[in-house]
């Protein structure tokens, strides 16, 4: 495992990872002395980066555009809300419950979709419809709070996510983000990672080479769903409230997709960078709009928000990290003939 990580470090460039490590250490050290507002912004940025990296397993490495990941996020958040009604059960029990439900549901969805070779726009629309069906069911369910959602009461103890501030949640998201980044890095150097890239680039070719395409895509989808629901559990513990208007909305899925696309799909660091940048830009524009206090300025802020991402994607069509890695590979390729010439002579 360690050799695979070091190989990936060399392949992607140690400079990029060293910068990321310095930023992480600086944020971890400075967090206890920050204003609570900035701690919340950093926590939400890490959450969006983590969710984008979770989606990246199926949407980036496997190349399957899922638009229904809000379903798994909501499974995590609503698991916390339902367990809060059972006073003798700690809320951390939502982790195994949500993972079990998400894995089972994702396995069923993936088996049906990939068994009949559903991919591309058809897979995207299919997963989107499933999330929308779930949202309608929740809105019409008294047990799940209908459209008003469910309040999660304050409960004592760390096992019930009662920390008194956002700081522990920041460190929780930071820890699982580091673990997921290193896991993604190791994935790129193992057989599963090679199979995922092969089917993403040329599915028919990968199948001709003996790759079990349906099984590989199913595994990626299940892993992605399990990681996404973990983010939903922690988010519910942070905000103490769940509602279908956010937890099951298309916007939460688009945050995952845009974070991965902005940072670089199919890269280990890209989705984290994209998710953090999205939250920082959004919060900055909201703050500016609130300072003026007019609807027109808020609408203008949303236009600037959209324009910002259009410009970024025009400058970095492969995403920020993806484009940097691509340029690094191009520079290496241009130097190869020159270095090979003396040996040839």
TrEMBL record:
Compartment annotation: Cell membrane
Protein's UniProt keywords contain ATP-binding: no
Signal peptide (residue range): none
Predominant location category: membrane
Keywords carried by this UniProt record: Cell membrane, Membrane, Transmembrane, Transmembrane helix
Keyword Cytoplasm listed: no
GO annotations of cellular component type: plasma membrane
Transmembrane parts of this sequence: 12-31, 37-58, 70-87, 93-114, 121-139, 169-187, 219-242, 248-265, 272-292, 304-325
Annotated membrane topology: Multi-pass membrane protein
Name of the protein this chain belongs to: Putative branched-chain amino acid transport system permease
GO MF annotation list: branched-chain amino acid transmembrane transporter activity
Top-rank lineage group of the source organism: Bacteria
Pfam families: BPD_transp_2 (PF02653)
């Amino acid at each position: 495992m360690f050799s695979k990580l070091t190989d990936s470090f060399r392949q992607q460039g140690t400079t990029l990872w060293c910068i990321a490590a310095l930023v992480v250490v600086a944020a971890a050290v400075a967090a206890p002395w920050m204003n609570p507002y900035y701690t919340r912004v950093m926590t939400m940025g890490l959450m969006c980066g983590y969710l984008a990296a979770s989606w990246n397993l199926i949407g980036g490495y496997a190349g399957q555009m899922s638009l229904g990941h809000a379903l798994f996020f909501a499974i995590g958040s609503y698991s916390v809300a339902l367990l809060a009604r059972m006073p003798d059960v700690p809320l951390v029990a939502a982790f195994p419950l949500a993972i079990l439900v998400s894995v089972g549901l994702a396995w069923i969805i993936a088996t049906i979709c990939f068994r009949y070779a559903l991919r591309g726009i058809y897979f995207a629309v299919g997963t989107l419809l499933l999330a929308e069906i779930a949202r309608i069911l929740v809105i019409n369910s008294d047990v799940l709070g209908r459209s008003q959602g469910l309040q999660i009461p304050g409960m004592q103890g760390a096992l019930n996510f009662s920390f008194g501030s956002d700081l522990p949640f920041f460190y929780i998201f930071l820890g699982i983000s580091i673990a997921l980044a290193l896991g993604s890095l190791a994935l790129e150097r193992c057989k599963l990672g090679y199979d995922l890239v092969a089917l993403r680039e040329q599915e028919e070719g990968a199948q001709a080479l003996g790759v079990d395409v349906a099984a590989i895509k199913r595994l990626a989808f299940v892993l992605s769903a399990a990681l996404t629901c973990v983010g939903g559990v922690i988010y519910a513990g942070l905000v103490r409230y769940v509602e279908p208007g956010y937890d099951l909305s298309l916007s939460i899925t688009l945050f995952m997709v845009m974070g991965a696309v902005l940072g670089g799909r199919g890269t280990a660091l890209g989705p984290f960078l994209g998710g953090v940048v999205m939250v920082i830009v959004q919060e900055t524009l909201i703050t500016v709009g609130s300072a003026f206090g007019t609807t027109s300025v808020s609408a203008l802020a949303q236009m600037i928000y959209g324009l910002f991402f259009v410009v970024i994607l025009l400058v970095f069509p492969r995403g920020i990290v993806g484009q940097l890695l691509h340029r690094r590979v191009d520079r290496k390729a241009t130097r190869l003939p020159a270095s090979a010439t003396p040996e040839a002579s």
